[in-house]
Amino acid sequence: MSESVLEAVTSSAHVVRALLARRSAWPLGAPAPDDAALRQILQAAACAPDHGQLTPWRAQYVRDDARHALLQRVLAHPLAQSQEALALHGKYTAKLTTAPLVLVLAARVQEHPKVPEFEQLLSCGAAAMNMLNAACLLGFHGFWSSTPGLLGQLLKEVMGFAPTDHMLGLLNLGTAVQKQAVPAQRPAPEVFAKQWQP
Length: 198
Ligand SMILES: Cc1cc2nc3c(=O)[nH]c(=O)nc-3n(C[C@H](O)[C@H](O)[C@H](O)COP(=O)(O)O)c2cc1C
Fold this sequence. Notes:
Layout: H1 3-21, E1 28-29, H2 35-45, E2 57-63, H3 64-76, H4 83-86, H5 89-97, E3 101-107, H6 117-137, E4 141-145, H7 149-159, E5 166-176, H8 189-192
Helix pairs in contact: 2-6, 3-5
The structure holds flavin mononucleotide.
Protein name: Putative NAD(P)H nitroreductase
Family: Belongs to the nitroreductase family.
Cofactor: FMN
Protein backbone atom coordinates (compact mmCIF):
# COMPACT_ATOMS: atom_id res chain seq x y z
CA MET A 1 0.00 0.00 0.00
CA SER A 2 1.41 3.40 -0.93
CA GLU A 3 2.04 5.99 1.75
CA SER A 4 -0.80 8.26 0.53
CA VAL A 5 -3.32 5.38 0.28
CA LEU A 6 -2.31 4.16 3.73
CA GLU A 7 -2.77 7.68 5.08
CA ALA A 8 -6.24 7.98 3.49
CA VAL A 9 -7.33 4.58 4.86
CA THR A 10 -5.99 5.41 8.32
CA SER A 11 -7.72 8.77 8.43
CA SER A 12 -10.98 7.25 7.11
CA ALA A 13 -10.89 4.71 9.92
CA HIS A 14 -10.34 7.58 12.34
CA VAL A 15 -13.36 9.45 10.92
CA VAL A 16 -15.59 6.39 11.22
CA ARG A 17 -14.44 5.84 14.82
CA ALA A 18 -15.27 9.47 15.56
CA LEU A 19 -18.73 9.07 13.94
CA LEU A 20 -19.44 5.98 16.03
CA ALA A 21 -18.35 7.71 19.23
CA ARG A 22 -20.31 10.92 18.65
CA ARG A 23 -22.39 12.13 21.57
CA SER A 24 -24.63 15.14 21.85
CA ALA A 25 -23.58 17.44 24.68
CA TRP A 26 -25.50 19.89 26.84
CA PRO A 27 -24.81 22.48 28.15
CA LEU A 28 -22.34 23.95 25.69
CA GLY A 29 -19.78 26.68 26.34
CA ALA A 30 -16.94 28.44 24.53
CA PRO A 31 -15.20 28.01 22.24
CA ALA A 32 -17.75 27.83 19.47
CA PRO A 33 -16.76 27.28 15.86
CA ASP A 34 -15.28 30.51 14.49
CA ASP A 35 -16.42 31.89 11.13
CA ALA A 36 -14.02 29.69 9.14
CA ALA A 37 -15.09 26.52 10.95
CA LEU A 38 -18.75 27.49 10.69
CA ARG A 39 -18.35 27.94 6.95
CA GLN A 40 -17.08 24.36 6.68
CA ILE A 41 -19.95 23.16 8.84
CA LEU A 42 -22.48 24.96 6.65
CA GLN A 43 -20.77 23.59 3.55
CA ALA A 44 -21.35 20.10 4.96
CA ALA A 45 -25.11 20.82 4.89
CA ALA A 46 -24.82 21.33 1.15
CA CYS A 47 -23.47 17.76 0.80
CA ALA A 48 -26.81 16.26 1.87
CA PRO A 49 -28.57 14.10 -0.71
CA ASP A 50 -30.85 16.52 -2.53
CA HIS A 51 -33.24 15.08 -5.12
CA GLY A 52 -33.80 17.68 -7.82
CA GLN A 53 -31.18 19.98 -6.31
CA LEU A 54 -33.83 22.02 -4.55
CA THR A 55 -31.66 23.12 -1.60
CA PRO A 56 -34.61 22.86 0.81
CA TRP A 57 -32.61 23.49 3.99
CA ARG A 58 -32.34 26.93 5.55
CA ALA A 59 -30.39 28.15 8.59
CA GLN A 60 -29.88 31.43 10.41
CA TYR A 61 -27.06 31.49 12.93
CA VAL A 62 -26.85 33.60 16.05
CA ARG A 63 -23.76 34.20 18.17
CA ASP A 64 -22.97 35.69 21.55
CA ASP A 65 -24.88 38.93 22.31
CA ALA A 66 -27.15 38.53 19.28
CA ARG A 67 -28.67 35.49 21.04
CA HIS A 68 -29.85 37.74 23.86
CA ALA A 69 -31.23 40.30 21.40
CA LEU A 70 -33.10 37.48 19.65
CA LEU A 71 -34.39 36.18 22.97
CA GLN A 72 -35.65 39.64 23.97
CA ARG A 73 -37.56 39.94 20.70
CA VAL A 74 -39.05 36.48 21.15
CA LEU A 75 -40.11 37.21 24.74
CA ALA A 76 -41.50 40.65 23.83
CA HIS A 77 -43.62 39.32 20.97
CA PRO A 78 -47.37 39.80 21.56
CA LEU A 79 -47.94 36.05 21.15
CA ALA A 80 -45.50 35.38 24.01
CA GLN A 81 -47.60 37.29 26.60
CA SER A 82 -50.33 34.74 27.29
CA GLN A 83 -50.36 33.00 30.68
CA GLU A 84 -49.33 29.76 28.99
CA ALA A 85 -46.50 31.42 27.04
CA LEU A 86 -45.20 33.36 30.05
CA ALA A 87 -44.67 30.05 31.83
CA LEU A 88 -42.36 29.01 28.98
CA HIS A 89 -40.07 32.07 29.02
CA GLY A 90 -37.49 30.28 31.19
CA LYS A 91 -37.43 27.34 28.82
CA TYR A 92 -37.06 29.63 25.80
CA THR A 93 -34.20 31.44 27.55
CA ALA A 94 -32.35 28.19 28.18
CA LYS A 95 -32.94 26.97 24.64
CA LEU A 96 -31.69 30.14 22.97
CA THR A 97 -28.79 31.15 25.19
CA THR A 98 -27.13 28.03 26.63
CA ALA A 99 -24.86 27.41 23.63
CA PRO A 100 -22.55 30.11 22.25
CA LEU A 101 -23.60 29.48 18.65
CA VAL A 102 -27.18 28.61 17.71
CA LEU A 103 -28.30 27.67 14.21
CA VAL A 104 -32.05 28.02 13.74
CA LEU A 105 -33.03 25.41 11.16
CA ALA A 106 -35.92 25.38 8.74
CA ALA A 107 -37.12 23.49 5.68
CA ARG A 108 -38.32 25.41 2.66
CA VAL A 109 -40.35 22.82 0.80
CA GLN A 110 -41.50 23.51 -2.72
CA GLU A 111 -44.02 21.84 -4.99
CA HIS A 112 -42.19 19.54 -7.35
CA PRO A 113 -43.52 16.92 -9.77
CA LYS A 114 -40.85 14.35 -8.81
CA VAL A 115 -39.72 15.31 -5.31
CA PRO A 116 -42.44 14.91 -2.67
CA GLU A 117 -42.44 16.85 0.56
CA PHE A 118 -41.11 13.95 2.63
CA GLU A 119 -38.00 13.69 0.49
CA GLN A 120 -37.30 17.38 0.92
CA LEU A 121 -37.77 17.13 4.70
CA LEU A 122 -35.46 14.11 4.86
CA SER A 123 -32.90 16.08 2.87
CA CYS A 124 -33.08 18.82 5.52
CA GLY A 125 -32.57 16.22 8.27
CA ALA A 126 -29.54 14.89 6.43
CA ALA A 127 -28.19 18.43 6.08
CA ALA A 128 -28.57 19.00 9.82
CA MET A 129 -26.85 15.71 10.63
CA ASN A 130 -24.01 16.53 8.25
CA MET A 131 -23.52 19.80 10.11
CA LEU A 132 -23.58 18.10 13.51
CA ASN A 133 -21.07 15.50 12.36
CA ALA A 134 -18.85 18.12 10.74
CA ALA A 135 -18.84 20.17 13.93
CA CYS A 136 -17.88 17.08 15.97
CA LEU A 137 -15.16 16.10 13.51
CA LEU A 138 -13.74 19.61 13.83
CA GLY A 139 -13.49 19.07 17.59
CA PHE A 140 -16.64 20.88 18.73
CA HIS A 141 -19.82 19.52 20.28
CA GLY A 142 -23.44 19.97 19.38
CA PHE A 143 -27.00 19.39 20.43
CA TRP A 144 -30.03 19.39 18.13
CA SER A 145 -33.00 20.64 20.12
CA SER A 146 -36.58 21.25 19.13
CA THR A 147 -38.57 24.48 18.88
CA PRO A 148 -42.00 23.10 19.71
CA GLY A 149 -45.24 24.89 18.87
CA LEU A 150 -45.20 28.53 19.80
CA LEU A 151 -41.40 28.87 20.00
CA GLY A 152 -41.05 27.78 16.39
CA GLN A 153 -43.72 30.22 15.34
CA LEU A 154 -42.11 33.06 17.29
CA LEU A 155 -38.66 32.38 15.82
CA LYS A 156 -40.14 32.18 12.36
CA GLU A 157 -41.77 35.59 12.69
CA VAL A 158 -39.02 37.37 14.58
CA MET A 159 -36.22 36.09 12.32
CA GLY A 160 -38.08 36.55 9.06
CA PHE A 161 -38.35 32.98 7.85
CA ALA A 162 -41.00 32.46 5.18
CA PRO A 163 -44.52 31.81 6.54
CA THR A 164 -44.58 28.40 4.83
CA ASP A 165 -41.19 27.26 6.20
CA HIS A 166 -41.19 24.27 8.57
CA MET A 167 -39.15 24.99 11.67
CA LEU A 168 -36.75 22.10 12.35
CA GLY A 169 -35.24 23.09 15.65
CA LEU A 170 -31.93 24.49 16.86
CA LEU A 171 -28.49 23.12 16.11
CA ASN A 172 -26.55 24.29 19.15
CA LEU A 173 -22.77 24.34 18.74
CA GLY A 174 -19.89 24.94 21.13
CA THR A 175 -17.71 22.93 23.47
CA ALA A 176 -19.04 20.48 26.04
CA VAL A 177 -19.00 21.89 29.56
CA GLN A 178 -18.89 18.37 31.03
CA LYS A 179 -15.78 16.82 29.55
CA GLN A 180 -16.50 13.14 30.23
CA ALA A 181 -19.28 12.05 27.88
CA VAL A 182 -20.78 8.69 28.81
CA PRO A 183 -20.64 6.36 25.78
CA ALA A 184 -24.13 5.93 24.35
CA GLN A 185 -25.95 2.60 24.37
CA ARG A 186 -26.60 2.23 20.65
CA PRO A 187 -28.82 -0.53 19.24
CA ALA A 188 -26.90 -3.22 17.33
CA PRO A 189 -27.51 -3.23 13.57
CA GLU A 190 -29.48 -6.51 13.89
CA VAL A 191 -32.18 -4.59 15.76
CA PHE A 192 -33.04 -2.43 12.76
CA ALA A 193 -31.48 -4.07 9.71
CA LYS A 194 -31.47 -7.52 8.22
CA GLN A 195 -30.31 -9.10 5.03
CA TRP A 196 -33.10 -9.89 2.60
CA GLN A 197 -32.69 -13.04 0.58
CA PRO A 198 -34.98 -14.48 -2.09
C1 LIG B 1 -35.13 17.20 15.51
C2 LIG B 1 -34.64 16.82 16.87
C3 LIG B 1 -35.03 17.56 17.97
C4 LIG B 1 -34.60 17.22 19.24
N1 LIG B 1 -35.00 17.96 20.31
C5 LIG B 1 -34.59 17.64 21.54
C6 LIG B 1 -34.98 18.42 22.66
O1 LIG B 1 -35.66 19.44 22.53
N2 LIG B 1 -34.59 18.03 23.89
C7 LIG B 1 -33.82 16.89 24.07
O2 LIG B 1 -33.50 16.57 25.22
N3 LIG B 1 -33.40 16.14 23.02
C8 LIG B 1 -33.75 16.50 21.76
N4 LIG B 1 -33.33 15.75 20.70
C9 LIG B 1 -32.39 14.62 20.94
C10 LIG B 1 -30.95 15.12 21.13
O3 LIG B 1 -30.55 15.97 20.07
C11 LIG B 1 -29.92 13.96 21.20
O4 LIG B 1 -29.92 13.27 20.00
C12 LIG B 1 -30.25 12.99 22.34
O5 LIG B 1 -30.06 13.67 23.55
C13 LIG B 1 -29.36 11.74 22.29
O6 LIG B 1 -28.01 12.08 22.32
P1 LIG B 1 -26.99 11.46 21.26
O7 LIG B 1 -27.11 12.31 20.00
O8 LIG B 1 -25.64 11.56 21.91
O9 LIG B 1 -27.39 10.05 21.02
C14 LIG B 1 -33.73 16.08 19.42
C15 LIG B 1 -33.33 15.36 18.29
C16 LIG B 1 -33.78 15.69 17.03
C17 LIG B 1 -33.33 14.87 15.85
